[in-house]
Write a structure and sequence with these properties.
The chain has 293 residues and is of the alpha/beta class. The protein folds into 2 domains: 164 residues, Vaccinia Virus protein VP39 (Rossmann fold); 103 residues, Putative methyltransferase TM0872, insert domain (DNA polymerase, domain 1). It is built from 12 helices and 7 strands. A 7-stranded mixed sheet has the order 3-2-1-4-5-7-6, with helices on both faces. The protein is elongated.
Length: 293
């Protein structure tokens, strides 16, 4: 979808460990510029080092992708390829100390940038019951949100909820007998909701999509997107995918871009078998008009 070429500017707004950026840089060949954004400084450093021997210029930026438009403009860069992979890096999910997962015990953190911001434990400790229920329902699409919030409030009154395993067990207890028939771990939606709130994920995505629209409108007036630029977003749940779909449909309707994907691209059965985390992934892409000769 992105088809990077030599000399182009490639912007990976969620660099992670640099897997996507590396593949894009290889495809582009020499003289490309690769701009890497990530909130996780350790991952950003790893991704930057990974690019060292590819013959491309690398611009690492330790910041949220909501700054991508301004950072590119300030550097005089106009993007030809933009990729946003909205999933978490595997090393973040697999590290118990980051508190992203309930598969092993760890502190209830969940921050993408472990150097700043509130943690999931802070949200659990200080959020009123009704608001907590709304968070779990709105961002986790959890039908038992009120029951879960009530149970959390009851348990935090006894002692602080500080670990992933304890929170997962509290959610399971709130489910009661329903936990045995649940197709996924009962804590899945609650953990997703907390991660979204802790990292402001949906607000950040809305800001990025707004900046893409602005870039499309200002293509001839010193915008941050180049003529013919390609933008791709990989989302992992319906709250993200719905926003991306609506934004890209609106861009096409207003003559600002053309959709490259009428329906989202999904991983093949073979890929899902070897990489289970690809199962919920949906990729949507658009391209801007090319400059008239």
């Amino acid at each position: 979808m992105l088809q990077p070429k030599a000399g182009e500017v490639i912007v990976d707004v969620t660099a992670g460990r640099g897997g996507h950026a590396y593949a894009l840089a290889q495809s582009a060949g020499g003289d490309a510029t690769v701009v890497l954004f990530d909130l996780d400084k350790a991952n950003l450093d790893f991704a930057t080092e990974r690019m060292r021997n590819l013959g491309v210029s690398v611009v690492p930026i330790h910041a949220n992708f909501t700054t991508a438009r301004n950072e590119c403009k300030n550097r005089g860069l106009r993007a030809d390829c933009v990729l946003a992979d909205l999933g978490f890096a595997s090393n973040q999910m697999d590290n118990p100390k980051r508190g992203m997962s309930f598969m092993s015990d760890g502190p209830l953190d969940m921050r993408l940038n472990p150097e700043t911001g509130i943690t999931a434990a802070d949200v659990i400790r200080s959020t009123p019951e009704k608001e907590l229920a709304d968070i779990i329902y709105q961002y986790g699409e959890e039908p038992y949100s009120r029951r879960i919030a009530q149970k959390i409030v009851q348990e935090r009154a006894k002692e602080p909820i500080l670990s992933t395993v304890r929170l997962a067990q509290i959610v399971r207890d709130a489910y009661g007998a329903r936990a045995r028939s649940s197709r996924t771990n009962p804590a899945t939606r609650t953990f997703m909701a907390l991660r979204i709130v802790v990292n402001g994920e949906l607000a950040a995505l809305d800001a990025l999509l707004a900046d893409v629209e602005t870039g499309c409108r200002k293509i001839d007036n010193c915008g941050w997107l180049n003529h013919g630029a390609r933008i791709a977003v990989i989302s992992f749940h319906s709250l993200e995918d719905r926003r991306v779909k609506q934004s890209f449909v609106a861009l096409e309707k207003n003559g600002l871009a053309k959709r490259l994907t009428r329906k989202p691209l999904r991983a093949s059965e073979v890929e899902m078998a070897t990489n289970t985390r690809s199962r919920p992934a949906k990729l949507r892409a658009v391209t801007l008009p090319r400059e008239e000769k």
